[in-house]
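Review this today:
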Amino acid sequence: MVDSTLKSDPPSRTPVRPFAWLWRTVIVELRHVAYVLVWVFVIQHAVAGFVVEGASMEPTLANHAYVIVDTLFPATRPFRRGEVIVFRYPRNPEVEYVKRVIALPGETVAIAHGAVFVNGEPLAERYIHEPTRYFWGPARVPDDSVFVLGDNRNSSSDSHVWGPLPASLVVGRAWISVAPFAILAAEAPSAAPLVTR
């Protein structure tokens, strides 16, 4: 008589891990904590907050405006004309100023008859408070510097007073003004004081 029953291997027994779900949950949560710590580190080292003191950047930045600054900018890309930057004041590096980049390294800048000229061409500046009432230059911006001016041209201590700004003094690019809100794109924590005189 032929046996018609089919035989199979005995069922395999996987070892029971009573707390496997707990370990999976712990690992997932540790990943989340690691992501948060990385973001906190990046934010602390990539951005900084400043309060503007003074009126030299009006109307773009009012007195007491809170500004978020991209501090990675100086090392990641070249300067652009029209962007607002924060830097250590050349005559007192303990103080930080905010101004607008007007001329780039190697360019020639002159100020005359209410206008700013870069390489002989007048700049179209929609952001200034009023036409400039002084004369300056012409002079070439050194290769390791930029020429900066306040938007409130006639009430600003800037490159027309103390000369081109060495790039090594730049802290970062002003990115957003929070109060009042404005995105500070280049046009063709406890807040540290930021002087605009």
Remarks:
- The first helix runs from residue 20 to 46.
- Residues 188-196 have pLDDT under 50 and may be disordered.
- Residues 47-103+142-195 form a domain with the Umud Fragment, subunit A fold (CATH 2.10.109.10).
